[in-house]
Specification:
With 498 residues, this protein is an alpha/beta fold. It has a 7-stranded mixed beta sheet with strand order 8-7-9-6-12-13-14. Strands 18-19-23-20-21-22 form a 6-stranded mixed beta sheet, sandwiched between helices. Strands 3-2-1-4-5 form a 5-stranded parallel beta sheet. It has 18 helices and 23 strands.
């Protein structure tokens, strides 16, 4: 499907000699060191105070952790804080001011104010920064200038799967002894932190490359700042209806990302995505390694327990034995293997690492079991992600009842942009509970095709009680939200246990 295909050596024109090198010996190989030399300089920072506006987001919270590790004094502010970011910041001892008032600027006289995209014109603290002519910068630009510029960046972009795939990639590089830094929009359980600097003078940095806009003063996508050398393009669909008018606008931003990738780099692209083909057809100056059906990298011989073979151009080159659910995670694994190979990790080492991968928190995470009822927590909030998550759970539990519980909380969901696709994404569930307390579009009408198995609630406590009353021993309750959902997991487990 994509151009610039060819042999393995053709997609790795500069780095083909990596194939003969153990990833554990890369640092001692003179020829490889020559290639990565530009990424081996890690200047030390003198103490500088940064104050982060919107520190509670997954990106900005990760940036805070990295900045502190790099020797910066870090403080910040936000309105709503909830785990896992609140816990991570507390553990790091980073002071978080509650609210966006102007008075905090006197309390935290920073050298520069790092402004997240939660900050808007009209906020007291934003207006005060502008009126006082204080130095400010976006989070992505700060990260690019102070961290990424010195490293070989491996970026993971796409509408879905960024967090999981970036976590897999960071873990594979860790397992291979490369000690990459990373900034991920979740907590990888192989690390238990969302971000860190490269370890032991590593040249590599893995970043979740988000297409959301940068800041109120910079409307480019965040990932345009990162300038990756290795880029995974997982998929591309319409999302973020609050900032993008249509799919074409997102494709344009992805094209801008592609324009920054060097000709000696590598793009690993999902061959199933027509939108990614559109992006690459706009211009591509970098070798492309496609993955998926009828592509270079393929899935083969999927077993009932989730294990599968990895193939390259029809030849089996590895085997992964894990308990992750769904075809989407197997595709994520293919992309990771190709990306890791680009920096010298052999396929067999990647497969060994992925067989020991622990999924990200809030990705099909079992929160507890009460009276034979299993409660899961998942971050899914887009119809495609909802559908793939349910499909993975169905594959795991067979004919057992699945109760899907959804909070339409993302900006796109709140606007009702995906309302027409919602019922279809939930059809494999046996019962569906949707909390409509935070939206003003007609949720009941959107879920009407589901008939009697759809239940809509606007009063939270009553909503929880109705779920508990419906659940039976042997059921699997899948709770999907990109927020805290009012602590529903613990409240529901308590009801079920009572």
């Amino acid at each position: 499907m994509f151009t610039r295909q060819g042999s393995l050596k053709s997609i790795l024109p500069t780095f083909s000699h990596f194939q003969a090198a153990s990833p554990h010996t890369i640092a001692s190989n003179p020829s490889i060191c020559a290639i990565i030399a530009p990424f081996c300089s890690h200047p030390k920072h003198t103490m500088t105070h940064i104050h982060i506006i919107g520190i509670g987001g997954t990106f900005m919270g990760g940036l805070a952790a990295i900045a502190q590790q790099a020797g910066f004094k870090v403080t910040g502010c936000d309105a709503k804080m909830y785990p896992p970011m609140s816990t991570q910041l507390e553990t790091l001892g980073i002071h978080v001011h509650e609210g966006f008032d102007a008075a905090q600027l006197d309390q935290f006289p920073a050298d520069v104010y790092v402004i997240g995209n939660v900050a808007k014109r009209g906020m007291e603290v934003v207006e005060a920064i502008l009126n006082r002519n204080l130095p400010y910068i976006s989070g992505p630009q700060w990260l690019a200038e102070n961290v990424l510029r010195q490293h070989w960046v491996l970026a993971v972009a796409g509408t879905h799967g960024k967090t999981t795939t970036a976590s897999m990639l960071a873990w594979v590089l860790e397992y291979a002894g490369l000690g990459a830094g990373f900034l991920i929009g979740g907590i990888p359980q192989n690390f238990n932190v969302s971000a860190r600097l490269p370890q032991n003078e590593s040249s590599f940095f893995v970043i979740e490359a988000d297409e959301y806009d940068t800041a109120f003063f910079d409307k480019r996508s965040k990932f345009v700042h990162y300038r990756p050398r290795t880029a995974i393009l997982n998929n591309l669909e319409y999302d973020h209806a609050d900032i993008f008018p249509n799919l074409a606008a997102i494709e344009t931003q992805f094209h801008h990302l592609v324009r920054t990738i060097p000709s000696e780099g590598l793009i690993i692209a999902n061959a199933h995505s027509g939108s990614l083909k559109t992006v690459l057809d706009q211009g591509c100056w970098t070798p492309v390694a496609p993955f998926g059906d009828n592509a270079h990298w393929q899935i083969a011989n999927v077993q009932a327990d989730g294990a599968f073979d990895v193939q390259y151009q029809g030849e089996t080159v590895g085997h992964i034995a894990w308990d992750l659910l769904g075809d989407h995670n197997r595709l994520n694994a293919l992309a990771v293997i190709a990306a890791a190979q680009h920096v010298g990790v052999r396929v067999e080492h990647s497969c060994q690492a992925l067989s020991q991968f622990k999924n990200v928190k809030r990705r099909m995470e079992i929160k507890g079991i009460a009276n034979g009822i299993t409660v899961y927590d998942d971050f899914a909030h887009h119809p495609t992600a909802i559908a793939t998550t349910l499909a993975g759970l169905r594959q795991k539990v067979g004919s057992a009842r699945i109760i899907a519980v959804l909070e339409p909380r993302s900006n796109t969901m709140k606007l009702g942009t995906m309302a027409d696709a919602l019922a279809g994404s939930l059809k494999t569930a046996d019962q569906v509970f949707c909390y409509a307390g935070g939206v003003d579009w007609d949720v009941a009408a959107a879920l009407a095709p589901l008939g009697s198995k759809a239940h809509i609630g606007k009063q939270f406590d009553d909503f929880v009680n109705r779920i508990a009353a419906t659940a039976q021993a042997g059921d699997h309750i899948l709770i999907m939200s990109n927020g805290g959902f009012g602590g529903i997991h613990e409240k529901l487990l308590a009801k079920l246990a009572g």
